[in-house]
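Technical appendix A lists one of the benchmark inputs used to test multi-chain prediction within the project. The record comprises two sequence entries:
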Amino acid sequence: MLHIYCPYCEEFREEDEFHPVGEAHIERPLEPEALTDEQWSQYLFFRKNPRGLHHEMWVHGAGCRKFFNMTRHTVTYKILETYKMGQQPSVVAEESE
Amino acid sequence: MEKYSGFGLLKHSLSHHENWQRVWRNPTPKKHYDAIIVGGGGHGLATAYYMAKEHGMTNIAVVEKGYLGGGNTARNTTIIRSNYLWDEAAHLYEHSLKLWEGLAQDLNYNLMFSQRGVLNLGHTLQDMRDIERRVSANRLNGIDSQLLNTAEVQDIVPILDCSKTARYPVMGASWQPRGGTARHDAVAWGYARAADALGVDLLQQTEVTGIRRKDGAVCGVETNRGFISADKVACVAAGNSGTLAKMVGMELPLESHPLQAMVSEPIKPIIDTVVMSNHVHGYVSQSDKGDLVIGAGIDGYLGYGQRGSFNIVEHTISAIIEMFPIFSRVRLNRAWGGIVDTTPDACPIISKTHIKGLYFNCGWGTGGFKATPGSGNVFAHTVAKDEPHPLAKAFDIDRFTSGKLIDEHGAAGVAH
């Protein structure tokens, strides 16, 4: 079970209290009408799905109920950091595998 | 190919079963193939078999980085059914189920295919509304789906707690008598043996490291055993599809998640059907060996670790025990995880690509095993004829741009 540090509660809590939401740092396009079908499809459906470091959003559903971001390795499941919404990760996922 | 039969078994018993023929060859790669299938799991091997059998393409190879049937084919819970909601999916899975029904004879291989029936339980009023809708849709598509009430469910599974005070009261179920289970390894082995007999080269321990192109068309694959030239490359690599797509700069709308399953110690026959509950993410059947095969829900986060989290195991086991109090003292033998490649609409991608001669069959997510024959059959057509099989047309990758999704989250059996 993952042991997750909530950056808002400033405490380690068990995985049960959290819920993964998906890839982090995806911004909704400001003008959806201006996008082509391909761009809109990219925004809606296409995700990085890396085998390695991944920035992802979680929600502390059974705690403070706030969303935050996490950098986690998708093979070892090791959590490198958690950080508040609006912040940038200090460990950056590599583009390659 | 040596034909398997009862008589053959008797004959070989005289020589203490020491003179059985090798089941398939272990060939060295040729310089050129008409088509290469990347991925030697059930789907890839089925594709190769139908390409050779129905489309006369025998100069083809299956390349597999590990060993045949060593990925999700070996990790699933072996359930077969076709009671999907939408026409497109229902037709595809029903096509597959029909192939299952004659497959052991076709392949001359004992698949231990058992049509023991599949129950999908409803625990809430909304469950029952959804089930009724799905059963009605199934019947319009000619699929043998039935709606059962609590008493009828109890009659089929006496050990299920159907009392009013149960933690998860059973309000009814959908029932597909033609559904059931099959031996997962045997499916891969049966297809491999039959494909090999038709002249297909099965290249194990051969990992694709690149896909070579010339003038916008595929011309072969780079592997750890050197370059192999091919006119067509068909990728059936489940969780590794994204890696292959990246080699040609393509993106696929897939996310990889761990999905867990577990088996108990072998016990005497106690449950002769498959019981699934979407609501509590637990399903159970009993293998011929006697162990209870239990499937769990999916982990919400991305993962390639081939293991899942303990809270999912706990959640599933507690639900199974609530439904089957008699199992409370059964011990678990093993638990494992497989990596499922899920799409946004819980339906597979069976598609040509913008690169000539490159095809993808992936995204089967949590429900690929039951589709093995059908998937191989329609994909073989798609690759051999370079146009989608009528049943595969709706599963084109373009649906994520056009918006014509096939939302099967409800009938896919496991929540995503």
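The CA atoms of residues 30 and 40 of chain A lie 12 Å apart. Chain A has a mean pLDDT of 92. Comparable benchmark entries are summarised in Table A2.
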